[in-house]
Specification:
Helices cover 21% and strands 28% of the residues. By secondary structure, the protein is of the alpha+beta class. Strands 1-2-3-4-5 form a five-stranded antiparallel beta sheet, with helices on one face. Strand 1 and strand 2 form a beta hairpin. The radius of gyration is 13 Å and the shape is globular. The model has no long low-confidence stretch (mean pLDDT 93).
């Protein structure tokens, strides 16, 4: 399955395409709460929540004094922009 062009806003992606994209980026879906995803890279970890109007990313213990950093991305952003923002890390 091919995803829409990277410049396509996320609101033009069906849910299964967003889920496929997250899997391709190394994310794992929570088996109990299907809107929750997690990813672990060598230098950071994050939880991703697919909410109704936005994607919420919480980088775990990434800030000063090991605090969590929360970022919110609207579905009106392109998949490319969201990908660059989320997966570049905190």
């Amino acid at each position: 399955m091919a995803l829409p062009h990277p410049e396509t806003p996320l609101y033009n992606h069906p849910l299964y395409e967003i889920e496929t994209w997250l899997r391709s980026m190394g994310c794992e879906q929570d088996t109990q709460e299907l809107n929750l995803w997690s990813i672990a890279k060598s230098t950071w970890k994050a939880e991703i929540s697919l909410d109704v109007e936005e994607i919420v990313v919480c980088y775990l213990q990434a800030g000063d004094e090991q605090t969590d950093i929360k970022r919110v991305f609207k579905y009106s952003l392109s998949r490319e922009d969201v990908e660059d923002a989320i997966f570049s890390g905190p």
